[in-house]
Write a structure and sequence with these properties.
- The chain is of the alpha/beta class.
- The longest helix has 18 residues.
- The strands form two sheets. A six-stranded mixed beta sheet has the order 6-7-8-3-9-10, with helices on both faces. A four-stranded antiparallel beta sheet has the order 2-1-4-5, covered by helices on one side.
- Strand 9 and strand 10 form a beta hairpin.
- The chain contains six helices and ten strands.
- The structure holds adenosine-5'-diphosphate (2 copies).
- The site of one adenosine-5'-diphosphate has 12 residues, from strand 1, strand 2 and helix 1.
């Protein structure tokens, strides 16, 4: 049974200029522990797809199931990482990671410290977001997304704004996390090199004439 099951997914937006079909007839299964990347040009519906899986948009037709259950809202079983790190500027690194959990709880403290080490931010626990580089801020948002052991991590072009060096480092961090935790990854990018480097399976979300979009799966190695 796949962890994520998408069947006949259709999504349209009503705009002043009429109906925009963002996704049409998407079928996609993702196995537990898989690292899937979704590539495709700008506007082909990648963000829309990820937001639906994340439970941030529930206005669609078709079936989207996570662990056999209909996706009905954000919830703690899904971690979501956006293109730009969205940190609370008035909170320190460690409080941004803990979010609404108290660092006074020993198990939260322990887990936050472990994650700070994992994303290599030791020494920056008490720093504020404005004191961090872009790469460091993105690592904080990854640590925050990991805190509750999500079954699945959804990443929407998370490294698009980073320079090549920081990006390469972040890709290694993400592969470490995947190897150590077997977190299922769905990673959206328009960069084919990045998609192939990270994933054990790449799918192409293709815009076709007549607004029809189609997913073509290419299975690489998945044990
Ligand atoms: P991608 O992430 O691949 O660049 P998106 O998922 O952002 O693509 O967008 C897919 C299509 O849906 C595009 O044609 C875009 O213009 C349209 N779209 C996305 N969000 C909205 C919205 N909130 N209102 C209207 N149209 C939208
Ligand atoms: P990377 O994410 O690849 O490590 P960064 O550009 O994010 O690259 O930062 C490289 C290192 O430089 C960081 O790990 C940190 O030690 C240091 N650094 C970057 N920006 C700052 C800053 N504003 N204050 C203190 N140290 C910084």
């Amino acid at each position: 049974v796949p962890l994520l099951e998408i069947k006949r997914l259709d999504k349209s937006f009503e705009t002043k200029n009429g109906t925009v079909r963002a996704l049409s007839g998407i079928d996609l299964n993702v196995k537990e522990g898989e690292f899937l990347t979704v590539i495709g040009p700008s506007g082909c519906g990648k963000s829309t797809l990820l937001k639906i899986v994340a439970g941030l948009d529930t206005d669609y037709a078709g079936e989207v199931r996570l662990g056999g259950e209909k996706v009905a809202g954000p919830g703690i079983d899904k971690g979501f990482i956006f293109q730009e790190p969205r940190l609370f500027p008035w909170l320190t690194v460690e409080k941004n990671i803990a979010a609404d959990l108290s660092l006074k709880r020993p198990e939260v403290r322990r887990e936050v410290d472990r994650l700070i080490e994992l994303v290599r931010l030791k020494g920056f626990e008490k720093s504020y977001p404005r004191e961090l580089s872009g790469g460091m801020a993105q690592r904080v948002s990854i640590a925050r997304a990991l805190l509750r052991y999500p079954k699945i991590l959804l990443l929407d072009e998370p490294f698009g704004a980073l320079d090549a060096f920081t990006r390469a480092h972040m890709q290694e961090v993400l592969l470490d996390i995947w190897q150590n935790n077997r977190t299922t990854m769905v990673f959206v990018t328009h960069d084919i090199d990045e998609a192939v480097f990270l994933a054990n399976r790449v799918v192409i979300l293709k815009p076709r004439p007549g607004e029809i979009r189609d997913i073509v799966p290419i299975d690489l190695t998945f044990p």
